[in-house]
Design brief:
By secondary structure, the chain is of the alpha/beta class. The protein folds into 2 domains: 181 residues, Rossmann fold (3-Layer(aba) Sandwich), CATH 3.40.50.1000; 87 residues, Threonyl-tRNA Synthetase, Chain A, domain 2. It is built from 10 helices and 13 strands. The strands form 2 sheets. Strands 5-6-4-3-2-1-11-12-13 form a 9-stranded mixed beta sheet, with helices on both faces. A 4-stranded antiparallel beta sheet has the order 7-8-10-9, with helices on one face. The chain is globular. Bound molecules: magnesium ion. Magnesium ion binds next to loops.
Length: 280
């Protein structure tokens, strides 16, 4: 059995128009073969549930760069053999059951507030911005910005202070069990977690009581690297500017000729064509 973990922007979704139409043949083939498709992204649950709905996909999602795993309520009861204690530690968020791998958003905001009070650091997080501000800085529409602001466990922020003080802020974050990564203009403050770690967790839940699945991971950016390197089959999806991640999967690596969903489509069809389930 296969499980597919995929990044969204620039991978399954087109860099320019966020469409996935070129990937429809492969999406349909995954559905026919009942291969789980797990969206694995820096986006929030509020953003991703709409994308899953558009894809007609009912699988779990990995959001905020691995900070949380969210299961649709209908799926939650079936995971790990449906044992009652499986969902210990999960919390209900709308129609999903969520497990955080990171301190909660309120705790991250409290850390920022405490650092500001003590050291006067100048930074602006999503929690300090209106939806219009977020839209202005990210290029999202205001409606999308409202969804991007509904955070579970990570805070994007702009740093307006010196490099030396950024280093001190980063050290204080590490002491508090928080990590920082950079994506474009924004820094992200979050728990010590990753897409790769969430991929392993979710595979174990899906595989509970049967053979180990082969993991396929598709991505285009540095925050996908660890996930691709730890997947059995890695797909490096070409970026719109023609460049590509340079990394290898555990067993096999595909590098797409075409960018975004067009490359995604041909790679997934090739993997499905070649895949033979191991003999039981
Ligand atoms: Mg991407």
């Amino acid at each position: 059995m296969l499980i597919v973990f995929t990044d969204l922007d620039g991978t399954l979704l087109d860099h320019h128009d966020y469409g996935f139409e070129p990937a429809l043949p492969a999406l349909e083939a995954l559905r026919r073969r009942q291969v789980p498709l797990v969206l694995t992204t820096s986006k929030t649950l509020a953003e991703v549930r709409l994308i899953n709905a558009a894809l007609d996909n009912t699988q779990a999602v990995i959001v905020e760069n691995g900070g949380a795993i969210a299961l649709p309520a209908t799926l939650a009861g079936q995971l790990a053999g449906g044992q009652p204690d499986t969902l210990a530690g999960f919390e209900a968020v709308d129609d999903h059951r969520v497990l955080r791998n990171s301190p909660a958003y309120a705790a991250i905001r409290a850390f920022i507030a405490q650092q500001r009070t003590t050291h006067g650091y100048r930074l602006t997080g999503f929690g300090d911005m209106t939806a219009a501000d977020i839209a202005h800085h990210t290029g999202l529409s205001t409606d999308q910005a409202v969804l991007a602001a509904q955070r579970l466990c990570s805070e994007p922020f702009l740093w307006h202070d010196s490099e030396a003080r950024l280093q001190r802020f980063r050290e204080a974050a590490a002491d508090a069990g928080l990590g920082m990564t950079r994506g474009g203009r924004f820094w992200h403050l979050m728990g010590d977690t990753s897409k790769a770690r969430a991929m392993h967790q979710l595979r174990e839940w899906i595989d509970h009581g049967r053979g180990r699945s082969v993991t396929v991971a598709l991505g285009d950016s540095d925050n996908d690297r660890e996930m691709l390197e730890q997947a059995d089959i890695a797909v490096c999806v070409r970026r719109h500017d023609g460049t590509m991640l340079d990394c290898e999967g555990q067993q096999r690596t595909l590098r797409t000729g075409q960018p975004g969903p067009t490359g995604w489509n041909s790679a997934v069809l090739e993997i499905l064509r070649d895949f033979r389930p191991p003999d039981r």
